[in-house]
Design brief:
The chain is largely without helices or strands. The two termini are 30 Å apart.
Length: 71
């Protein structure tokens, strides 16, 4: 059964998003990310207290590509 769509207003579409109007069989957005973080990173909660005298993050990444996505 065909889809009936009224007016559509697109404000923003992210880099790993999919925008579709109508019937669709399969959709699979793809994206990659690499995050480096040192000690005390990504802490959540009420009253979190972190004491770090010294925190260094050293990264040696010699490969050209980590996750290849074919477009």
């Amino acid at each position: 059964m065909p889809a009936k769509v009224g007016a559509v207003k697109v404000i923003n579409i992210g880099s790993s998003s999919i925008f579709n109007i109508g019937d669709v069989y399969s959709m699979s957005p793809e994206s990659t990310a690499k995050t480096y973080a040192g000690g005390g990173s990504f802490n959540t909660g009420d009253g979190t207290h972190i004491r770090l005298k010294e925190s260094n993050t050293y990264v040696r990444d010699t490969d050209v590509a980590d996750q290849n996505i074919d477009n």
